[in-house]
Design brief:
Elements lengths: L2 H20 L4 H6 L4 H11 L4 H10 L13 H6 L8
Helix pairs in contact: 1-3, 1-4
Length: about 90
């Protein structure tokens, strides 16, 4: 595999964590839901997402705690677990 492909695959594998961090998502709370299955499903959606190029550009160009990207298949889930939302 060429170096640029390796870097791209690596970046795609870490992008969900980067998006969660950027949006201030409570990853620990998300990981506890249904014994981690909700997190695993979100990870699978991220890895197979058809908008990965848009996502990577968004990560490269958006400030911390910005609005969640509308194209993200995990948008509603991430919004539900944002730390800035407060406790229910």
């Amino acid at each position: 595999m060429r170096w640029w492909m390796t870097r791209r695959v690596e970046r795609q594998a870490t992008r969900m964590h980067e998006v969660m961090e950027r949006l201030d998502v409570d990853g620990a709370a998300l990981a506890r839901v249904h014994q981690g299955q909700v997190y695993a499903d979100a990870r699978a959606r991220c890895l197979t997402c058809g908008t990965s190029d848009r996502c990577l550009r968004w990560l490269d160009n958006r400030p911390l705690s910005s609005e969640a990207p509308e194209f993200c298949p995990n948008l509603r889930l991430f919004e539900e677990f944002r730390n800035t939302k407060g406790s229910d």
